[in-house]
Structure formats: structure tokens, C-alpha cells
Design goal:
348 residues, alpha+beta, four-stranded mixed β-sheet, 10 strands, 32% helix
Length: 348
């Protein structure tokens, strides 16, 4: 698991599965779930899955280690990933290593944030990424192992060990894995990656340091206006890190809600503008002590409200999920960015 060339390959005695799990845990490599043993052969197959990607990596915080492809592959193997997933894992890593993502800050905070990973383009279907029913949940190897591989890399290579560098007060299940795909096929809007300047044929991974999803439940509203009332008041909450007003957030609209917005002629620009205007926290919902804290960091009220981001450009909307009148709000850490990276597949 080391990144120095002379200790890249570890010689260990033959271990049965139970002994291997104990050994990995003793080395500090485990996230608490069973790990696949990264043999030389399995790591080589994983590396081969990323052939053609020869771009170097910047150092990973907090250890500031420049990773080798083999060390990344070993963690992908341990996460249960298939070799064909590896280019997407690498793209996700490059995203969180973008300086605007603020990896060091998001790993050292007491906030519960974790890397949120969303896939767009042909790679979703090729890998079997779940974009529909239960897309944030269990049951899909690609979703689980891509998200988990990134987390293991940040822990084992970067040094983001819980209680050591990862200082999250309570953490979140999203710290195991938080990966899903956009449901482009049912969306009434252009795919997220196309709106960010990529071609529809590009495979793209988008990352943001965020909280676990907050449910937006609206079974009663039959109009876009009604849905917006529910969306805005669900999102405008003083307990999420968006209250600092310094970073982006994601709104993942479910297919049934998206169809209602589209039927009533609400495009993405109108959705975004309405959320900016209406998803604001009334000052009466915030303590005087907290208001003083926000003012000290430069976040001042707008009239009788606090905005929860800097402007409409901080509101990122995508469509995912299956049948049901639910959507989701994903607040960010705050001091982070939404970063999209093209996946370099072997054929690319």
C-alpha cells in the first residue's frame, strides 16, 4: 500500500480470507467492510483497465503523497471494483484533487461531508451504473465500488483516517460510498455534463464535497409552483452547511417531479432562479449567536433572510431516481466546488 517504489509490492504469507481481513485491518487499510485481497495479478488487471491515461497525479492531502497507478489500483481492487471501473475512479480522484474542490479542508473539517460522485454519458450504461430507482442506495456493484474505491484511496494513500485527519463529528454513511448516475434517458433537460460544456458522447464524472442526501417529499403538489414551494422551504434550512452561504449545492430532481416542472414550462434557468430567490432562511430561524458568527465570516443578511449560496450559479440541478414523488437536496461542505472531469477510457 506504500507509494515508494521499493515497497510497492508486499510479500505476505498465504492467508485465508478471514486472516486476510484481520491483516488488512491491522495495517489500517480497512473501512470496516470486507476487503478483496489485492494480488499482483488483480492489481495488474486493474492497471490495464486505465491504459492510455499517462497523466501524472498531484499529491493527495493530507499526506501529500504523489500516488502511483499501482497504489490506486490496489485500493480499487480492495473496494471490489472491476477493471473497467478504474478510469471512472481515476476521473473522480482527479476531480477531488482539483484545488477548487478543497480536499484538505473537506477532509479535516468536523462537518459530515464526503465526496459525492455523479456519472454522465455512455459510461453509465457500459458499467451498469444505477441512475434510477434506489440510485443512492445498495445493490449495484458499480455505484458501490467506484464510490468506495475513491474513499479507500483518500484514506490509505492520502491519509484521511477517521479520528486522525478526518475529524468529522459524527460522519455519515456517505463516507463509505456515494456514487450514482444521472437518469439522462428520462430527463426533460439536457444532460448535466452537456450543460457544463462537454459533448453528449463524453463520459464525465462530477464530484462535490457534500452531505448525504436530504429527502424532498411532495406527493400532493400537482404544479411547478406547488413543487417549488416545497423545494425552497426544504432547502432553506439553518442546520446544513449551506447556511454559511459560501458554496454550491446539488438538487437531484426525481422523474415525476421533473415531469411536472417540464409540463408547466419550467426550464432549468427558471428552476435555478426561483431557488435562488426563494430558498432563503428567515432570520427568525437563526439564533443571535449564529448570526454574529456568520457576520464575522462575511455572510450578512439580505433583508430578513440569509441566502444559502452566493448566487444562482452555485445551484446545480440534475435528474436521477425512479418512480415516486421524491427529490433530493445535497448541501455542500461550503468551501468546495462542483468539479467535472472527462473519463479517459482505453479507447479514448
Amino acid at each position: 500500500m506504500s507509494d515508494s517504489a521499493d515497497t510497492e509490492v508486499l510479500e505476505i504469507a498465504d492467508l485465508d480470507p478471514e486472516a486476510w481481513q484481520d491483516y488488512a485491518e491491522e495495517q489500517g487499510w480497512s473501512d470496516g467492510l470486507p476487503l478483496v485481497m489485492p494480488t499482483e495479478a488483480s492489481v495488474a488487471r486493474m492497471v490495464a483497465g486505465a491504459r492510455g491515461d499517462n497523466e501524472s497525479f498531484p499529491p493527495i492531502s493530507p499526506r501529500q503523497v504523489v500516488p502511483t497507478l499501482q497504489s490506486l489500483a490496489a485500493n480499487a481492487v480492495m473496494a471490489g471494483a472491476r477493471p473497467e471501473y478504474f478510469p471512472s475512479i481515476i476521473a473522480a480522484l482527479r476531480g477531488v484533487l482539483n484545488p477548487s474542490y478543497n480536499l484538505h479542508g473537506s477532509m479535516a473539517t468536523t462537518h459530515s461531508c464526503a465526496p459525492v460522485v455523479m456519472l454522465n454519458g455512455p459510461i453509465r450504461l457500459a458499467l451498469g451504473v444505477n441512475c434510477g430507482t434506489n440510485c443512492f442506495g445498495q445493490g449495484w456493484r458499480a455505484n458501490a465500488s467506484i464510490g468506495r474505491a475513491l474513499q479507500l484511496i483518500l484514506r490509505n494513500v492520502g491519509g484521511g483516517v477517521p479520528g486522525v485527519m478526518d475529524r468529522s463529528t459524527q460522519g455519515s454513511p456517505a463516507k463509505y460510498a456515494f456514487c450514482f448516475g444521472e437518469n439522462e434517458e428520462e430527463s426533460p433537460w439536457a444532460p448535466f455534463h452537456v450543460r457544463r460544456g462537454f459533448d453528449a458522447s463524453d463520459s464525465v464524472v462530477t464530484v462535490m464535497s457534500g452531505e448525504a442526501p436530504h429527502n424532498i417529499n411532495d406527493h400532493g403538489s400537482t404544479s411547478a409552483e406547488g413543487l417549488m414551494t416545497t423545494f425552497a422551504h426544504t432547502i432553506a434550512q439553518p442546520g446544513a452547511n449551506t447556511i454559511y452561504g459560501k458554496g454550491p449545492y446539488l438538487v437531484i430532481v426525481g422523474p415525476e417531479h421533473a415531469a411536472t416542472f417540464a409540463r408547466d414550462g419550467w426550464g432549468l434557468d427558471k428552476l435555478r432562479d426561483q431557488l435562488w430567490e426563494r430558498a432563503r432562511v428567515p432570520l427568525k430561524h437563526i439564533s443571535a449567536e449564529n448570526l454574529a458568527t456568520y457576520a464575522a465570516t462575511g455572510h450578512h443578511p439580505t433583508g430578513d433572510f440569509l441566502t444559502i449560496c452566493r448566487g444562482p450559479e452555485d445551484i446545480h440541478i440534475a435528474m436521477a431516481g425512479g418512480p415516486g414523488k421524491h427529490s433530493a437536496f445535497i448541501p455542500s461542505f461550503g468551501g468546495t466546488a462542483v468539479v467535472s472531469t472527462r473519463v479517459k477510457t482505453p479507447a479514448a
